[in-house]
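Input for the complex:
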Amino acid sequence: MTFPASRAEASKDKLESEPSIKVDIHLFHCGQGDTVILNLLGKKWVLIDCNLPKGQIRNEFFQHVSSLGINRLDLVCLTHPHDDHYTGMEEVLRYFNAEGRSIGMYCVGAVEPRLIHTWMKRRNCPKSSALAYERLNKYVDELLKSKPPRIKLFSADANSRPVIVADDSGEVQLHPIAPSPSESRTVLQETFLLGRAKDKLNKLSIVLALLIRSKKGGFSGLLAADTDAVGFRSAMERLKEIEPTRPKPTFDFVKVAHHGSWDSHDGSGVCEHRRPEVKCVAAISAGRMGVLPDREVLKDFINNNWTVLVTTKRLAQGTKYALEFFGQNPNDYTYFQASNLKIAWSEDRQLEWSPEEAQISLPEIENYQTVRT
Amino acid sequence: MEIIEQIQEYVVRAKLGEHPQMEFQLGERLLAGSMRKNVWINPNDLCHVDVIVFADDNSVLSLESKANATLGMWEKSMVHLLSSHAASAGPHPRPCIKESHRGVVSEVSGDQVEITYETPAGPLRQIYRKEQFDGGILPNEGDDVEAKVTINVLDREPNVFEEEFESDIPSFEGRGIKGQARI
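Predicted:
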């Protein structure tokens, strides 16, 4: 009678002895914007965007980084030049270039930062945003020019080769799948050359597919930045080219595009890209001005059997007031509940997430607004 | 002449003293005010000066009455300004938001004052510094306050420097890694 138990023990020992591929995704609650940290294979750290206004949020971020034991950011990616994605990024780069800490690679879109900065100033963007962007890029230039260079530059679009992390346990690919070069050219022409005032920078968002293939299964994640529905569909087409054996891309995890705005969601078809056989997670960061995510986007994900996690949950129905613009810290708003999300995947344990209270239920979406007409 | 110098000149002319307690600019209209008088000036027509005297004798009007009179003048001017803009711009007035929020001074600590505004969505706390208050006079804990928020869309003044601005961020072209990116 002891034989099956012994066999189970042996099997367990074997599993424990074999290295297991794992990925952790952290969505740091940063008020209204994106701050995403990835831990790949348990040893490589990636920062995708950050919105870290000076003060409490920035201090909490550095405490969070310290608690995770991060001394090196192997990759820092700025998906697109909106200030809810780069506020405090210069300070992050400076922090990791001091006291024995370091940075590996800095990933940006293919459009020249000096063009974007010129456009920002001519278009009368908020002075603080344009100044922060200028300072960030000048600091990156300084790091690139230092001898030896203290950072490597990676210009990414849908045609770029993936960033690869590999060891004995396996391989993780972080694959840029948007923007397409043609879309970037259109934005470049309309925005920067013709000087159109309308902000189309979301169309330049670098969308990243996080792909793991292993004998025990696999993991597909999507980090959609602020791409719009056109960009999303273009990204899916690119993914089909990358993985021709999968006629329709499906994901275990999606970092929802543009903080769950209806305009980005409508027509994207993102909910249909759920991996059917497993529990899948859609994580949403709060958007600028506190009106995002949109109620109808939340409803669509929940009705399509996604587990929806939000960094900033509305606990009551709220109406927008101009006075709210004065605040920057969601903790000041007692009708919000802020959470640092952690989504963990490994071959052995599949998908896990925390905290439970970040999951949003159908009745709770009534606290959100919608622009859907 | 700088606007502030204009205001000072007008204030002197109106015999308000060198340091008016309030200064506003509304479109082409300048307001300088003290607790006794408000002076409205049209910089394009220096002869056109409106002086509103609250009272000949300070003791006649209470502080609250003066404040209300001042706010009344402010709102009247806003209505006039907006209606004049609406008339010149056609049937669509420019976007404008006006909000009013009641609150209470929840804490005074040194030079900082915390005011908690009650909004339907819940309390909203704001911190103010001493220098933000007129004359540096701080309110007391428990005082009722009201915040009036007015947001107007302004004409964008042509700014030659900004229109000709060219960024001096160095080019990143050709500086990226070639080939496979591994971290």
